[in-house]
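Quick one: structure tokens for this chain, please?
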Amino acid sequence: MISREQTRKPMNRSRLWWALLALPLLCFALGASGKRSASGPRTSAKKMTKVQWTWASGTFKDQMASIDRQAADVESENKAALAQISRASTNLETDQKLLKDMTARGATSEIEAVQKKVDAGTAALSKQQSALANGRSLLSQSEAAKQQLQDATQGSESTYQDLLKGQINQVAGHYTQRAQLDQSARTEVVPGTKCGDYPAQWCAAPPDSRITFGGKWFLNRECVAYAAYKRWRAGKPFATGNAGNWPGNSRTPTVGSVAVWNIGTVGRYGHVAYVTGVSRDSITISEFNWHPWVHTNRTIRLGGRGWPSKFWN
């Protein structure tokens, strides 16, 4: 009769034999893993997430006409502001002379009332000048928006429809340049909500309609409007005008920074975005109008193509 000990021996030798065969393979795998760790984290091969377009109606002609109508309204408001500034300046100058004369004559009983008129006139003039500056800035933004749309579509209705559908490779201009940059730099487009944390009324409003916050006017769904809104909400300074002209004070980002791409780097007007995350080798940003009029989050690798020109901390 064969004992249990005798039946176990062949099984143990078999296991030992297979273990010896597997050992070189295990060592090779561990060595490869070590090499990957030494050279840094592996790059994900995951494809970019397709952005969901929120505007799929209208025509090129309608969009251009809408911007022109709004610009005409702003032009009219600017003319009215200029007339008000002229009258307010004249009245303020008169009151200032009167106040100076009363002070020289020692007419203390009347000085207080005139001083109040001077203060009120100064405040009104400042408000009117601010409105005029807002109007001029909005006209500049409108011209830039029209030019970008013209560059992207070359005035073609069919190309405009391609733009609305997100078929970026069918169009021209900075949108195509940005899509190509995303692909070549392997920038990850991160899924987000329909409009980020934009207010619901702006999310429902059409592109390039006028919105107001922080005492300034902006065009809806443009990169400048969104970055400025995020900074305003955070209690930090913000700018208006072309994105590429925004200031920068650092080469190192922090959460809450504005990422600024200079004019010509990602289009003729540059680009701005709000930094929402910073890691050792990348940043995550929240933005509008990197792709046409929609909100996206992107993760950008440090030092690679597509890295911002500067940061405003």
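The beta strands are 188-190, 210-213, 216-219, 258-261, 271-278, 282-288, 295-301, 310-312.
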